[in-house]
Specification:
Blueprint: H1 8-20, H2 23-29, H3 34-48, E1 53-55, E2 60-62, H4 64-91, E3 96-102, H5 104-107, H6 110-121, E4 125-131, H7 134-142, E5 148-153, E6 163-177, E7 187-189, H8 190-193, E8 197-200, H9 207-219, E9 225-229, H10 233-241, E10 247-250, E11 261-267, E12 282-289, H11 296-307, E13 312-313
Parallel strand pairs: 3-4, 3-5, 6-13, 7-11, 8-9
Antiparallel strand pairs: 1-2, 5-12, 6-10, 6-11, 6-12
Helix pairs in contact: 1-2, 1-3, 1-4, 2-3
Length: 322
C-alpha cells in the first residue's frame, strides 16, 4: 500500500498543537485562525489512520501515537530548516565526497599531513582514500570510480587528458643491500651501478619514469639487466633486501626503513669532451583530476592542495641512509 504524502505544513501544525496543547494558542503561534488548524489536524489523523490528540472541552492531550511522533517531527522540521544552508554549503564544496587515489610514495609522509589538515578545514567533506598505481588510476578515472589521483611520473609527463597540479619533485636514489660492496660509499659511482642487476616496476605502471630510468642506461651505452619486476615500492625494496639487484626509487621511499637495505645517491658521470653525459633521472608527483567535473568538494580539495604550496623540490642529500 502506497502511503499518502504529508507536506511539512501539516507537521508544523501538529508540532504547534503538540507543544501548546491548545488549538487556539497553536493557531495564534501559526498566525492562523483556529478552524483551519483544527481541520488540518483532523485531516492528518485521517491520513495516518490514528488519533494523535485526545480532545475534551477542558483539555487537549497527546495520545501515545502522538507522543511517539513528537520527537520525530521535531527532527524532521529541524532538518528541513537546515536544508537551504546545507545546499549552499554543498555548492561551496564544504559538504560532499572526494574519492582520492594515491601512489604509495606520496603516502609515506605528505599525504597523512594533508588528510589531517583537510579534515580540520572541511570536516563535512568525506575524503575516501584508495592506494593505486598510475595505470589503475587511469582505469578508475575512465569508469568514474575516483575523483582525483596523486600520480607519480617523470617530470612534466602527467597524463595530458587530466588537469594537473604538480605537488612535489624529487631525485631518484639507489636502494641496495647493506652488505653490497657499493653500499660503502656515500655516493655510488654510476658506471658501477649500471653493471648491476636491476629491480624495477613494470613499464605499464609509470611509463614515463620507466623510460627515463632505462634511458639512463641506454645513454651510457649499457643494456639494463632487469632481474625482477614488481609493482609496489615496498616490494621492490624487499626484493633488493633479498639480493635480486639494485633499484632506483624516489627519495621519499627512504622513509621506508628496511633492515638490511640502505639508500645511496649516485655520482653522475664526469663530462666528456663534446659529449653530454646522461643526466640522473628524477620524478614528480602531481594531483590530477578530470577537467569537466561538477564536484564542488573536489574543487575545494584542489584549492586546499594548491594552498599547501606549489611544487616542493627535494634538495636533501641522501648520503648514507641505512
Amino acid at each position: 500500500m502506497k502511503e499518502a504524502w504529508i507536506d511539512l505544513r501539516a507537521w508544523r501544525q501538529f508540532l504547534a498543537v503538540a507543544e501548546e496543547l491548545h488549538f487556539g494558542r497553536a493557531a495564534q503561534r501559526l498566525h492562523m485562525t483556529q478552524p483551519p488548524v483544527t481541520q488540518a489536524i483532523a485531516q492528518l489523523e485521517k491520513t495516518l489512520g490514528v488519533v494523535l490528540f485526545d480532545r475534551t472541552r477542558r483539555r487537549v492531550a497527546l495520545t501515545p501515537a502522538g507522543e511517539a511522533l513528537l520527537p520525530e517531527v521535531r527532527e524532521l522540521l529541524s532538518r528541513a530548516q537546515a536544508l537551504p544552508l546545507r545546499a549552499r554549503a554543498a555548492a561551496a564544496g564544504e559538504v560532499g565526497r572526494v574519492r582520492l587515489a594515491f601512489v604509495s610514495t606520496i603516502g609515506f609522509e605528505r599525504l597523512p599531513a594533508w588528510v589531517r589538515e583537510f579534515r580540520l578545514q572541511c570536516p563535512e567533506v568525506a575524503l575516501e582514500l584508495v592506494e593505486a598505481t598510475g595505470d589503475v588510476q587511469l582505469e578508475a578515472f575512465a569508469r568514474g570510480e575516483i575523483d582525483a589521483g596523486l600520480m607519480l611520473h617523470s617530470p612534466g609527463f602527467a597524463p595530458p587528458a587530466l588537469e594537473r597540479l604538480a605537488v612535489s619533485q624529487e631525485p631518484l636514489v639507489l636502494a641496495l643491500p647493506s652488505k653490497h660492496p657499493l653500499a660503502r660509499a656515500p655516493k655510488v659511482p654510476l658506471a658501477e651501478v649500471l653493471a648491476e642487476p636491476l629491480v624495477i616496476f613494470p613499464r605499464r605502471i609509470v611509463p614515463s619514469l620507466h623510460d627515463a630510468i632505462l634511458g639512463l642506461y641506454h645513454g651510457a651505452g649499457r643494456v639494463p639487466r632487469i632481474a625482477q619486476e614488481a609493482i609496489q615500492m615496498q616490494t621492490i625494496v624487499n626484493l633488493v633486501w633479498g639480493g635480486l639487484g639494485l633499484a632506483w626509487v624516489p627519495e621519499s621511499v627512504t622513509q621506508f626503513r628496511r633492515s638490511g637495505v640502505v639508500y645511496r645517491a649516485a655520482a653522475e658521470f664526469a663530462p666528456v669532451a663534446r659529449r653530454r653525459p646522461p643526466a640522473l633521472p628524477g620524478c614528480e608527483t602531481s594531483l590530477v583530476w578530470p577537467a569537466e567535473t561538477g564536484n564542488a568538494a573536489l574543487g575545494r580539495f584542489v584549492q586546499f592542495i594548491r594552498a599547501q604550496g606549489a611544487v616542493t623540490v627535494s634538495r636533501s642529500a641522501v648520503g648514507t641512509i641505512g
